[in-house]
Amino acid sequence: MRIAASALIFALLVPSAPAVAEMHEVMMLNRNETGPMVYEPDFLQVAPGDTVKFIKTTSGHNAATIDGMVPEGNPGFLGQINEEIEIKLDQEGFYGIKCSPHYGMGMVMVIRVGDAARPASFPADNVPQRARKRFEDILGRNGFGK
Ligand SMILES: [Cu+2]
């Protein structure tokens, strides 16, 4: 009886509240050690409800979702050049992000929200060659290679 009462008190004292939402930061860069026009990091694993902030580390970049590379029904987002947007990601899935002026140069990144599997059409068919190469590299490095 005494043990049961202690267990009950313990259960009442320890909250089973959901984990606190985290803020993740991504730098938008002209260059790092991996090459020119990059997001750092270029892959994020986040929990539903977390926020991602894109930092204007060097000028001339933005962050925008790529058509066909967001979870079903998700509206995506579009940051303006040099805008430090904060995006709250509630929907599980894979998000393909591009820098609009440097998409053709391969400035892309991947955000995975929750436990989603890589969709068959990720990257999408119309992704430029250098961006496609970066996507395959990012996904392969993080355990989502084909
Ligand atoms: Cu850019």
From TrEMBL:
The keyword Transport applies. Residues 1-21 form the signal peptide. Coiled coil: none annotated. It comes from the Bacteria. Keywords: Copper, Electron transport, Metal-binding, Periplasm, Signal, Transport. The keyword Cytoplasm does not apply. It holds the Pfam family Copper-bind. It is found in: Periplasm. Residues 28-113 form the Blue (type 1) copper domain. Its cofactor is Cu cation. InterPro entries: Amicyanin/Pseudoazurin (IPR002386), BlueCu_1 (IPR000923), Copper_blue_Plastocyanin (IPR001235), Cupredoxin (IPR008972), Pseudoazurin (IPR012745). This is Pseudoazurin. It comes from Aquamicrobium terrae.
